[in-house]
Amino acid sequence: MTAIRKKIRQGKRDLYFDDAQSLYLAGKGLEEIQELLPLAPTTLKHWHKEGQWEEKRRQVPVSSRWLGEALKGILREKAGKMLEKGDLKPQELEELTKLLTLIDRMGSQGWDLRTAALEVMDRFGAFIRGWVTDPEELRRLTTMMQEFFRKLEEGEEA
């Protein structure tokens, strides 16, 4: 009996979300990201809002995780430019690979309360958006999450 294998097709989110987020955290605007990646402006705006990129960008200076993501964005852009020009030599590619490994390690270490809260609330927000259908209830929950982050930023007890 032969097994039937279903080909799993990756969507744009699977292919580009992490790259787009990294570029945004590195300081790129949505318009600049659209020029670099094959994404519609509405898709980027949706991901920006859904992924809470603005909040993550504010966390870059104090969060090793989001700083690591920002550095990945910078590295991707620079490596892409070098590849386009044909300037990337094997030794430089090895150095870039080592840098990415260090950035990944940096991102997985040093969790502080703000970083941990942002990660958990980011996942919780995605969970809520999948479960809550009432727009009023969703707005209320979003307001509470934003207030939670505001208090964390101000150093208050949340």
Any overview of this molecule?
This protein is mainly α and about 160 residues long. The protein has 2 domains: about 10-110, no CATH class; about 110-158. The protein contains 8 helices and no strands. The protein has helices at about 10-25, 30-35, 40-50, 55-60, 65-85, 90-110, 115-130, 135-155.
Kindly list the characteristics that best describe this protein.
mainly alpha, 2 domains, 158 residues, single chain, globular, 0% strand
Helices and strands, with pairings:
Elements: H1 12-25, H2 30-36, H3 41-50, H4 53-59, H5 64-85, H6 90-108, H7 113-131, H8 135-154
Summarize the structure.
This protein is an all-alpha fold and about 160 residues long. It has helices at about 10-25, 30-35, 40-50, 55-60, 65-85, 90-110, 115-130, 135-155. The protein has two domains: about 10-110, no CATH class; about 110-158.
Which stretches are poorly predicted, pLDDT < 50 over at least 5 residues? none
Number of strands: 0
Biggest pleated-sheet summary: none
In what range is the share of β-strand residues?
under 5%
* Estimated structural class: mainly alpha
* Backbone shape: globular
Number of self-contained structural domains: 2
Average pLDDT figure: 79
> Radius of gyration from the CA trace?
18 Å
Order of helices and strands: HHHHHHHH
Helix tally?
8
Percent of residues in helices comes to over 70%
Distance between the termini: 58 Å
